[in-house]
Structures are given as C-alpha cells and as structure tokens.
Specification:
Blueprint lengths: L1 H10 L2 E4 L4 E6 L3 H6 L14 E7 L5 E10 L2 E6 L4 H11 L6 E4 L4 E7 L3 H9 L3 H5 L6 E6 L2 E7 L7 E7 H13 L3 E3 L1 H10 L15 H4 L2 H4 L10 H10 L6 E8 L10 E4 L2 E12 L4 E9 L8 E6 L2 E8 L12
Parallel strand pairs: 1-11
Antiparallel strand pairs: 1-7, 2-5, 2-6, 3-4, 4-5, 7-10, 8-9, 9-10, 12-15, 12-17, 13-14, 13-16, 14-15, 16-17
Helix pairs in contact: 1-7
Length: 337
C-alpha cells in the first residue's frame, strides 16, 4: 500500500487529506495591516491572488505557529498545523482592538485537499475544465478561484512534496465530492505516514515534531522563507534582528538533515553523539523510499551543522553512524517557480 501511494506522488497524482489543518478566515478593511503588525513576513505584499509563509512568535522570538497565508478579494485565509489552530485563533483575537477585522475559524465547515504529483495539474484541469497551462503558469503560493457545480473553491499552488501540486479549499461536501471524482480519474489517496516521508524527503520539518514554541525560526532553518527583514515591528522582531545582525545568524543549535547508515530508523529524542559527547538529539525519522535508507531531522550543535559532518545516533544500546546532509534530501529536476 505504501509503495503505491508513494509512487502516485512521484509519478502520478496523489491526494493528501488536509482536513485537520486549521483554517482561519480573516475579513475586514484592516485585515492586511492587522496581520502585518503581528506576523513575521511582509503581508502588505500579499495582494489578492498571492500568498506567503509566515509565523506567529512570542515576544522572545519563539514559534507559536507556522502559517501559510493566501490572499483573495476581501479576505485572507490562514492555514495552520492542527495543533495550533485554537492557539492562533485565540492569539489573533487577543491582539484585536478597534480594527475593522473579523476572525472566523472555518476549520469545521471548510476543508483542504492536496492534489500533488507530476500529473496533478493535468488531472485537475480535466476535472475542473480549466486549461492545464493556466494551472501550471501560476507561481508557488499564488492562488486562483473557481467554481465546482456553482460552489466557490480556492486553488492554492504549492510544491511541498517537491512535485507540482495544489491545495483546494472549499466546503466539506464539495471537496469530498471532488475527491471521489479525482479518485475515479486515477488519483490515489495517500496516508499521513506516506505524506510524512514525502515531506521529509523534500526537507520540510513538521510542527510540532521538529520545531515548536521552544525554538526560533533561525534554529529551525525557516528564516529565509518566513521572515521579512525590511518590514516594521511585530512580536519577536527584536530577537530575530539581533540573531541576524548582531550574531550573524548564529544560534547555539541548528535543525539539520541526517542520512543514517544501515536500516534502523532513529527514534525521537535519540541522542546525537560526537567524539563521545552528546551534541544534540533526533526529532523525527523515516525510511526514504528514494534513497533506500533512513533519514532524520535533529538539532545539533552549531559548529557541527556543516553538510558532510560525521555524527553518531545513540539508538537504544546501538551506536549508528550518520552524516549531516544538505536539504532537501531528494532533489527534483523541475525548479520551484
């Protein structure tokens, strides 16, 4: 079953159920300025049809939640990890004062369905009667609206499996009907376990498995895709600026990718050992189908983060050789737009 699901994502079209993601819908004329003051990225640049990755931080610069924003006419959609849905909703409301902003948690009435793989755009274009070049020409994190049987849906371009892909936002009944049509057209529904392998191969850490409120975006290696260093104030900005400008991006530890010798997949919290001393720990690991070996994420001492550094994993009573690896683990020929 896993092999069929994996191959669908790498050579065909895979369906990824994102119904447990938080989906927060924000309207009101002050919505853009409101979010710009709270989040790490440049939200002013998110004009309708565009989007970005961002984060909500504590005043100490730690990650409350990572977010993906998608701007449409008169609204912004935030999707969050399942575990931070309620926290983000409550935090946004805490910061709301007199702004013309309405915050609605649409996680239950609405859902998200991912359609990813080399054939994703072709399958979607046939099912939705949209020209495939229209889908393929849209850059990553941009979006477009369309209708399915008179019901509005939002198509968000993304490539988090490393392949061409789309996430579709709409009412549960409409998305469930679309899912059945796509399965009949040849798409394969994949499990969360298969999706985790694909995400890790692409070098994407998971929240809260690989990073949480105990770390900064710099420690998690997410500063380049989530932070604007030219915008004004937001909670945690002083810490982010200090790390970048005063400390040359240096932190005491760094999340890195590791390739593992042998066939044993490391467990969460397994110690990383260098020269006989503990130098970090594993956060998550999987067996890579493409590489045919275990891979893992882990936090390691800053001076050991360079690709090619030899390290060992203490797994139960076994000491397993590992190597720090440049991300992504698996590279794809087609560059991201």
């Amino acid at each position: 079953m896993f092999i069929n699901e994996y191959q669908a994502a790498r050579t065909g079209a895979a369906l990824y159920d994102l119904s447990d993601q938080g989906k927060i819908y924000i309207t009101g004329k002050d919505r853009i300025n409101f979010l710009h003051r709270l989040l790490t990225n440049d939200i002013l640049a998110c004009t309708p049809g565009r989007g970005c990755h961002a984060a909500l931080l504590t005043s100490q610069g730690h990650v409350i939640s990572c977010l993906r924003l998608s701007a449409v006419d008169h609204a912004i959609l935030l999707d969050t990890p399942p575990s931070t849905r309620t926290t983000v909703y409550n935090k946004l409301n805490e910061f709301l004062f007199r702004e013309d902003v309405q915050i609605e948690d649409q996680s239950d009435p609405k859902t998200l369905l991912g359609v990813h793989g080399p054939n994703a755009s072709t399958l979607l274009s046939t099912t939705l009667a949209i020209k495939p070049e229209v889908l393929e020409e849209l850059p990553v994190l941009h979006n477009m609206s369309c209708f399915i049987e008179d019901s509005p849906v939002l198509l968000i371009r993304d490539r988090y499996f490393g392949e061409s892909g789309w996430d579709i936002f709409g009412s549960r009944s409409v998305i469930n009907h679309l899912r059945e049509k796509l399965i009949k057209a040849g798409a394969t529904l994949i499990s969360a376990q298969t999706a985790r392998v694909l995400l890790m191969e692409t070098g994407i850490p998971a929240y809260p498995e690989d990073f949480d409120e105990s770390v900064t975006l710099f420690e998690a290696g997410l500063e380049n895709c989530s932070i604007s260093f030219t915008k004004g104030c937001y909670p945690g900005q002083e810490v982010m600026t200090w790390i970048r400008e005063r400390n040359s991006n240096r932190t005491s530890r760094k999340l890195v990718g590791l390739t593992i010798d042998g066939s044993t997949v490391p467990a969460t919290h397994d110690a990383l050992i260098h020269n006989g001393l503990r130098a970090g720990h594993i956060t998550s690991g999987v067996f890579s189908e493409t590489l045919q070996r275990p891979i893992a994420f882990g936090y390691i001492r800053w001076d050991l983060k360079v690709a090619g550094t030899d390290i060992h994993v203490q797994h139960e009573k076994e000491l397993i050789k590992a190597t720090v690896c440049a991300l992504p683990f698996v590279r794809h020929d087609k560059p991201q737009q």
